[in-house]
């Protein structure tokens, strides 16, 4: 029997909206509940319900929304309220994901009766700076998991954490069965099945730099001969959505771009696509890219540590510097216009996703780590 059986485990997310960290956390939460026998709950540090809460309902996982405003004027009272709820809940294990949940959990876990807190570094250090406040919070944590070498290195180099204190456990990917086939998706997108499709799955926020991708797409279309391909942007409409739609209109490419918003059938969309593109300037290992790899797609993207780790030596030649529209356009043209190259890359990416990012391996490694940590107080 696992040491985790019967343990009260609380997952803490930045909100109840779905992102890469939340999706990975939910997969782990379901595994701990269904296969390890843990008592799992989910909290989101926001006011409203969202995709996370709907998924929790479907998996019979209790959830709660707790507003936590990080602005300077409201941060302290909101943190005090968070500590009150945490002390009342008294989970035995607290798993936090992304900056604000990590910092909030770090500040209060030991004061609220939590026996084990694990900081999940799900990015390469986005918005986490070695300020006095952040250093103090990090110093209160004893256990860390990083999903990429870049995140592990960031904690070690910026905060002086011993490298053996930061477990490297890469994300595990599992693809749901497609709800719609390729023909149905082409109908949804209102294009013929002969049209090539490039897809980026990422919430439309300032952190993902869709603006560079739209500039690149305009350059691609200017050079393209034959039936123009379609760019599909799938992801929640966050702070950049309106500006990006206006940018597409200004560039004159609206007929060749689709803004889908959040997509439930990601597997179906990937199966209908010919190329995955990812323009983000900062990532841990992006789940969306690994999911595309698992679907057999070639990858064109930014040359950043998390992307290099995701695609490996075989995929690095198809990565370009961040914020370089021309370089990204050229690499997309190469992959879209050479079907044999695109197919070969897709096969290599699918094998790499299976070898390094298998879901069973992720669950096994995470449970082993949590068991070793929980053993300290069992």
Describe the structure.
With 378 residues, this protein is α/β, with parallel strands linked by helices. The protein folds into two domains: 182 residues, Glycogen Phosphorylase B (Rossmann fold, 3-Layer(aba) Sandwich), CATH 3.40.50.2000; 175 residues, 3-Layer(aba) Sandwich (Rossmann fold). The chain is built from 15 helices and 13 strands. The strands form two sheets. It has a seven-stranded parallel beta sheet, sandwiched between helices. Strands 10-9-8-11-12-13 form a six-stranded parallel beta sheet, with helices on both faces. The chain is globular and about 65 Å long. 46% of the residues are buried. The mean pLDDT is 94.
Q: CATH first level of the largest domain: which class?
A: Alpha Beta
Q: How many domain modules? A: 2
Strand content: 15-25%
- Gross morphology: globular
Kindly report the name of the CATH homologous superfamily of the largest domain: Glycogen Phosphorylase B
Q: Provide the low-confidence segments as ranges.
A: none
Name the structural class: alpha/beta
- What is the mean predicted local confidence, pLDDT? 94
Look up the CATH topology of the largest domain: Rossmann fold
Which strand order spans the largest sheet, edge to edge or round the barrel? 3-2-1-4-5-6-7
- Strand count, sense and closure of the main sheet? 7 strands, parallel
What's the SSE pattern? Answer: EHEHEHEHEHEHEHEHEHEHEHEHEHHH
Number of strands: 13
Question: Taking Cα atoms only, what radius of gyration do you get, to the nearest Å?
Answer: 21 Å
Helical run tally: 15
CATH architecture descriptor name of the largest domain: 3-Layer(aba) Sandwich
N-C termini distance:
13 Å
Summarize the amount of helix as a percent range: 40-55%
